[in-house]
């Protein structure tokens, strides 16, 4: 399925219902920094998200150090943020709630 | 176990036997960029390394996008590179060989 780049208005409105996510200054990606109780919890979160990423065939850019996972989501083929990024963001929120 | 910061000479000599690792310009960390055939292989590598990290109680700083994993190893408590970083680097080399 081809995903179309969302307008800034559509992104802002989708972000409003997600906790802690923001649009990057260049408008090309949404980002969040997750914190967990330790490395094990952070990596358990990443493992669950990795499965969701494979199911969606859409992958995050992410950085991990100990209990922190910084995530950046963008759709390269669309040159910006699409509905796919919000589906992955929602999967991350779900995974973060249980770790 | 307390790990002591290694001298630049000791780091250089340990790096000589590791493929593709380098000392960062500030001398505080060793780093490598790993490439795999796809996201699944990259994350399988990360999963194996995460287990080694927990065993060593020593954790990487790492960034993943699709098939690429950029790794930075340093020992914060020692303010530089220690033997622990080389143990984790060796575990990464071993994990990379099977993915």
UniProtKB/TrEMBL annotation, chains A, B:
Family matches, as Pfam families: Pterin_4a (PF01329)
Protein name: Putative pterin-4-alpha-carbinolamine dehydratase
Catalytic activity: (4aS,6R)-4a-hydroxy-L-erythro-5,6,7,8-tetrahydrobiopterin = (6R)-L-erythro-6,7-dihydrobiopterin + H2O
Keyword Plastid carried by entry: no
GO molecular function: 4-alpha-hydroxytetrahydrobiopterin dehydratase activity
Listed InterPro entries: PCD_sf, Pterin_deHydtase
Lineage: Bacteria, Pseudomonadati, Pseudomonadota, Alphaproteobacteria, Hyphomicrobiales
CDD domains attached to this UniProt entry: PCD_DCoH_subfamily_b (cd00914)
UniProt-listed PANTHER family: PTERIN-4-ALPHA-CARBINOLAMINE DEHYDRATASE (PTHR12599)
């Amino acid at each position: 399925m081809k995903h179309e780049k969302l307008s800034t208005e559509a992104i802002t409105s989708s972000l409003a219902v997600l906790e802690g996510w923001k649009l990057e200054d260049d408008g090309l990606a949404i980002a969040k920094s997750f914190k967990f109780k330790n490395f094990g919890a952070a990596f358990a979160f990443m493992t669950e998200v990795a499965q969701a990423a494979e199911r969606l065939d859409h992958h995050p850019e992410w950085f991990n150090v100990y209990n922190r996972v910084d995530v950046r989501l963008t759709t390269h083929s669309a040159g910006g943020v699409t509905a796919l990024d919000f589906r992955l963001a929602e999967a991350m929120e779900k995974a973060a709630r249980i770790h």
